Amino acid sequence: MLFAAGALAPGSAWGQRAELEKFIRHRVLANGLEVIVAQSRGVPIATIEFDVRNGSFTQRPGTEGLAHMYEHMFFKANAQLPEPDAFVKRASELGATFNGTTQEERVNYYMTLPSDSLAGGLRLMAAAIRWPRFLGEELEREREVVLGEYDRNESNPFFELQQAMGKALYPGQWSRKNVIGERTVLQRVTPAQMLEIQRRYYVPNNTALIVTGDVDPDTVFALAERFLGDWPRGEDPFAAEPIPAIPALASSSVVYVERPVGAVTVMLQWQGPSVRKDPAATFAADVFSDALNQPGSLLQRRLVDTGLFQSINVNYYTLNQVGPITIAGQTTPERLKEAMAALQQEVQRLADPGYITPEQLQATKAERAVSTAFGFDRPSEHAKTIGFWWSVSGLEYYMGYVDNMGAQSLEDVRAYARKYIVGKPMVVGILLPPGVKGAIGLSDADVLPRIVP
Amino acid sequence: MTLIRGTALLLGTVLLLTGDLAAQARAGAGPAPLSTGATTVSYDVDGVRVIHRFVTSGDIVVANAYLLGGVRQVTAENAGIELLLLEATERGTRAFSRDRLRRTMASLGTSITTHVGVDWSVIGLRATSATFDSTWAILASRLMEPTLDSADVELTRRQLVAAVRQREDSPDQLVEALADSFAFSGHPYALQPTGTEASLSRVSLASLRDYQTTQVVKSRLLVVVVGNVARDRITRLVRASLGRLPAGNYRWTLPDSLPRLRAAAHTVSRALPTNYVLGLYPGPRADSRDYHALRIATAILSGQLYSEIRSRRNLTYAVNAPFIERAVAAGGLYVTTTSPETALLLMRRELSDLQTGVINPAALEQLILQFITQYFLDNESSAQQADFLARAELYYGDYRRADRFVDELRAITPADIQQAAQRYMRDVRFVLVGSPSQAAVRAMERF
Fold first, then answer.
1. CATH assignment of B22-32+255-445?
2. Nearest-Cα residue of chain A relative to residue B378
């Protein structure tokens, strides 16, 4: 399940593959570009999206934040529109709205416009992805904008907590998860670095074009061939430079972030499954999270209904390279010690028989049946959903996602909890007001599990 | 209030000397109706007003019960009471004990959500056609016969108070929360629909129960249903549930105009890497022709601010001129920047250009085209359509105006836009969270 901003959980219903195959068409061009079309005639607009397998996971130390910097440069001058702001002006002429996002394992660029402007929009997007110029002056100026984004992130205390926990959860490989990057890296960014990212990753065989909305699939395929068919295939970026494995966490640790906040945030994180190594566990992970987030689950009743926490949320963020498992909650300074003890006690029970009941397992399926139906209700968001899964796990994973979720048994879910959570090294993060730690005498022993692996 | 656009809606250079725009703007084709194949009707079920968009494609149903009045129903003493009520109802009703309610919801796989705003509160359901009736029964029971057990209310209250405290941890949320109260002091819109720590703490169990009895009445309700469900079925469900509520004597009207106070600045010192600046000014009521004119004027100004302050001067990641769509609109100026003085100076210059320059008709035509795209984007989903229908009915007096929205935008002339900019975009009252300098304060006070 997704945790980071920017993409939606996939829809779900039993027999989803058959349902999806009714309206999703897929073709691979000779240069390796995957073209995916999801037709929906509800409103007369179309969404064009490029997804590139880039993002923080391709970043070595010293390059943190460059994938995101590249995303900002996508909408700048290119060989077909060499003037600054020309992309924006052309998009305005087309009546288009557009944006891009960068995550750990994908970068996406999307544009929504009247469906009768599809050809113009695709031509514009194709020029941007194929022929960026990375003018030095534009890069310098946009760098200041990105630093402004960095300032905003740093103004939020939760950002600091997440960054500190990420460093602890991915020792030695934080650069692979650090999407916003490092300020010092951004301050030294050069056009040559952008060109290197383009050469390695912005090749058709590492990209998908996704078009949703009021479109005819055959027309989309023809336009894709016309504007992108002669885009030269590149080397496989991951054959030339494989992504190194994330080292396993050796022991548990605690991160305290003291800021003048009004509530205490507690976060436990574990290294979760990787799609490429243990896809079955990723399905079990989502069922597990859904079951525990039900208000009637043991976890919620013992931690929220008792007033120890104001809320508790369980999540697994699906990634190809070690997605994090997170349990996060809010409590008060007065109840923090008691709440932590109770939380750690519950964590030790998560794989126990009966902790998740057959009824709760069944309920996760019912919930997914409804969310599937709603998942197709917004074609523009559906493009982002398809793009995320294409990038992280491949289209096949998405097509079979809900059916595989439905096949999970209670034993599968318990096995997942045993393998990745119960008794496993974790990172505990606490965001709390200054002075509280000393005032309540909080120590690492109070927040770590009693049995430290 | 949305301060940062998810997608860019930009105009490069709007202000150029040109001729008349209106003729060109009106010449464009009208919009296609939303949800091809859908029909929308309105009817009364035993005193409950229902707007029903029957969509035969798909299998989903969205049903929202709008409890009208919003912050006009409360005072500074009990602001947040309606949210407390709606949230506490999740913990049990006379027909559904807490555990039964949760078990039933889980087995259905459906959801019931709540939201409070300045004009109304909403409790709504998301279901499939097959699960609609059962989910409706729970929604109606939550509204009509909540248990409001003392311990459950206290637990809910603590959750809401914690949420209020946490809201202030985010500078964006803090600046938003402060902006309304600073800009519109004396008007109900100055109140927080989610309440404050003090107001939530003051609501007694007795007053909450009394509020439920006296305020959950048919005359305060508007039900909007979008989805694959027939009129007979909706009629049957409403008649057996909300139709039995007391009638009450509420009558929806547009609120009084917002007070126009002189430009001023309120600052909150926080050690942050940047400054969060939001200024608000009062706009027209929704029944004014100026309403859409100001909507377009803010979009033009947004494009200019983005182009000048972000793209050309690189002083910010986020700059915007939000249009705050309420029964009485407000407009805003928003930026996060380490150079507030310069950014504010540029904002003033761009604002002045809009008020005194001439609008390029071709650029405006493009903007309208982008508006149409955005309009369809904003109405892709059933839930969005339900809200749009409600706004059309309550703000503009007729749900059918939802389908005429684009035509109405196209009817706005450059003169309308400029007049709206001159009439409303002034007397801006700013809130700054960060490191306020005297120069920044003076710059804010000059609007």
1. 3.30.830.10
2. A378
